[in-house]
Known about the structure:
Layout: H1 10-29, H2 35-56, H3 64-77, H4 84-115, H5 118-135, H6 159-167
Amino acid sequence: MNHRQPATDLTTVLDGDHRELERLCTELELGQGSPENRKDLADHLIGALVRHTVAEEPYLDGAGDLAEADGLMRQLEGAGPQETRFERLLGGLIRTVRRHVRDEGPEAVARIRRDWSPDRRGELGRELVEAREAAATLPHPGLADRMPQADQLRPGPGFVDRVRGALDPASGGTTTAG
């Protein structure tokens, strides 16, 4: 009998994240579009990677690629698309994301499959999906009284922290990486 995992199984959600990250990296590597469009796509990659990081970090050993990516994202969020460092930083981020998708990500997914029952993985996956859906409407705790809701998850300086804070209010929008 072919038992199919539900779409909300945590491992299915994380595998989907890996596919989306890989797709975004490939699109950026094609180098098409104006510098502003590339910056928008890079910001989309950053948002997707932060969402994925918040979901997967609890299941990874040590800092690894996601911590390295965090530092690159923070530098990249402040770089304009016309700056020479933009493409250098973006290339570094793409390499780091690909290394994670190839090496760390599958290891974390295998660990989750080994350590948690299908029911527990389904529960964790549903919680993750619900948190992601809610994050789009929740203000960052440190910004709620100072920034219009429509602007709270827009790219720019502090974007990594705002996305992280919206997804994981316990983090307060900060990380230990950096």
